[in-house]
Design goal:
Length: 114
């Protein structure tokens, strides 16, 4: 499992995986061209969540789980420097159900069955 490290000093943000720069994976989904962030739910934290999960779990699982991972883990990180291990990432996703549709699509599907 990999080690993810992040450091923020003012506007400078550096995120690494095993001491190399973490690829933002804009090719997978461009959520924030402004770069990574954490400590809240938004485009920068979503891009970071997507990048971490793509590295750790692969593209498909990343696309299905980046929002949950951001909300459960990254949005709660308030400090300017942190380290996450791969097993911590896996643990944070336990109990998260992957759904291949938006919430709106899921609600429409459920409403039609009632």
């Amino acid at each position: 499992m990999a080690t993810y490290s992040a450091f923020r000093n003012g506007e400078v943000i550096k995120v690494t995986v095993d001491d190399r720069p973490l690829d933002p994976r804009l090719d997978l989904r461009c959520l924030s061209e402004a770069g990574f962030e954490w400590g809240y739910v938004g485009s920068g934290p979503y891009q970071l969540a997507l990048a971490i999960l793509a590295e750790e779990l692969g593209d498909q699982r990343a696309l299905g789980n980046y929002k949950s991972f951001c909300e459960v883990t990254l949005a709660r990180l308030r400090q300017d420097q942190w380290v996450l291990e791969g097993d911590q990432i896996e643990m944070s996703l336990r109990g998260v159900v992957e759904v291949d549709m938006t919430l709106s699509e899921l609600l429409d599907k459920v409403r039609r069955k009632i």
